[in-house]
Amino acid sequence: MNLIKRFKTLAAVSTTLLLAGTLAACGGSAESGGGNGLQDSYVVATDTSFVPFEFKEDGEYVGFDIDIVNEIADRSGFEIELETTNFDGIIPGLQTGTFDIAIAGITITEDRAEVVDFTSPYYKSGLRIGVPVDDTAITGVDDLEGLTIATRLGSTSADYIENNIEGATPNTYEQLDQAYLSVEGGGSDAVLYDAPNVEYYIQTTGGDSLKIVGELLEAQDYGLAVSQGNEELLAAMNEALAGMIEDGTYAEIYEKWFGSEPEWLDALAESQVS
Question: Is the separation of the CB atoms in 121 and 103 below 8 Å?
Answer without folding.
Answer: no
